[in-house]
Design brief:
Two copies of one chain form a homodimer. The first copy, chain A, is α/β, with parallel strands linked by helices and 202 residues long. Chain A contains eight helices and nine strands. Chain A has helices at residues 13-24, 73-78, 80-84, 101-107, 123-128, 153-165, 167-177, 183-196; strands at residues 2-6, 32-37, 41-43, 49-51, 54-55, 64-67, 94-98, 138-141, 144-147. At the A-B interface, helix 1 and strand 4 of A face helix 1 and strand 4 of B.
Chain lengths: 202, 202
């Protein structure tokens, strides 16, 4: 199974790379994540230039699509051509957003009445779209999940692993990346957060 | 003040990018981090190619140097030319290692009798160098700090900010990146971990 980590110019490294690196820990279980970009290269908010691993067209064949965050998401959602190049299908795909990525889901009309998690900076722009914002790091309903606060990307990644290749693989990936000496408590926190966010699926 | 995030081919994205993104949150306090590479580009363990922001020569002018981790650190420490290109000076610089980066510090003879934090995979190789490995996510003595387990890179970054531009800037950076709804507990955990690791400095 394949995951597209959609990454725009001005992206936040924490959002795209915590998700991609953590998901790629589940490679042995049959899951792969790819940095997916609208141009051959994108440059982060801190000036790091990265070569995309997949073009946006890859979204059509991905089993899960995570929309990363960055300092130019408002330009992204104002670009109707770019939005059209994001043919997300919650009937067939898992869809996740990190921080300002929620704005993309809102503009694409994917949220319905679902409230979201997003970061403090993005919050007013998401609310302007008529979407309710929760004071929670992670919220999921059905095939859509949202995370808020850069380090909440670990929840989005664990949810993606759990929902594609299973809870055991998610647990193993989180255990591997957790700080030494804090593995049990990290696994407990992450798994309970993604579980608590998906009561309908338990 | 400037921080070199030394990043080799085969690097782990979590290690280099959590540190660089978190440290760059303290830009307003006068701190900047740069992905520092031995070649113009490096490719991560998951196939992401990144343009280096600074060459290894930048180490000589950096106030702090963090050695990232990856799947080829054993090749790095076997390459005496590459080791020679890392003129680390704990008398003048803060020096940190993430996971297998501890092996680089050991081979450079920087650790003396200091025990370290490192990850489970790197542990036997670090111990082979005669260095004691702690079951702790973070350990610092004097101007050297070591972290183990990918997500422990948040501790290394917070320590770097705290020791260069101050504890308030570190606290603000951690607060910003922490998951929404978990900010207070994240700040408490990170600040207590880097404080607990540096009793001599309090």
């Amino acid at each position: 199974m394949q995951v597209a980590i959609v990454t725009f110019d001005g992206f936040n490294e924490l959002d795209s790379f915590i998700a991609s690196a953590l998901i790629n820990r589940a490679r042995g279980a049959g899951l792969r994540a790819y940095i997916t970009t609208p141009t051959d290269t994108v440059t982060s908010m801190n000036g790091v230039t990265v070569q995309g691993q997949r073009p946006l067209e890859f979204i059509a064949e991905a089993d899960a699509v995570l929309i990363g965050s960055g300092i130019r998401t408002r330009d992204v959602v104002a670009d109707l051509g770019l939005l059209d190049a994001l043919p997300l299908d919650p009937g067939r795909q898992l869809i996740g957003s990190q921080c300002s990525g929620a704005l993309v889901l809102a503009k694409l009309g994917l949220l319905g009445s679902m409230p979201v998690s997003t970061d403090i900076t993005s919050r007013p722009f998401v609310e302007e779209c008529g979407v309710r914002v929760l004071d929670a790091p992670f919220h999921t309903e059905g095939s859509i999940a949202t995370a808020g606060g850069c380090l909440a990307s670990q929840y989005l990644a664990a949810w993606t692993i759990s929902r594609t290749v299973g809870e055991a693989a998610a647990l193993a990936a989180v255990d591997y990346v957790a700080p030494v000496g804090e593995k049990a408590e990290t696994v407990r926190r992450v798994m309970s957060t993604i579980g608590a966010g998906a009561p309908a699926l338990r």
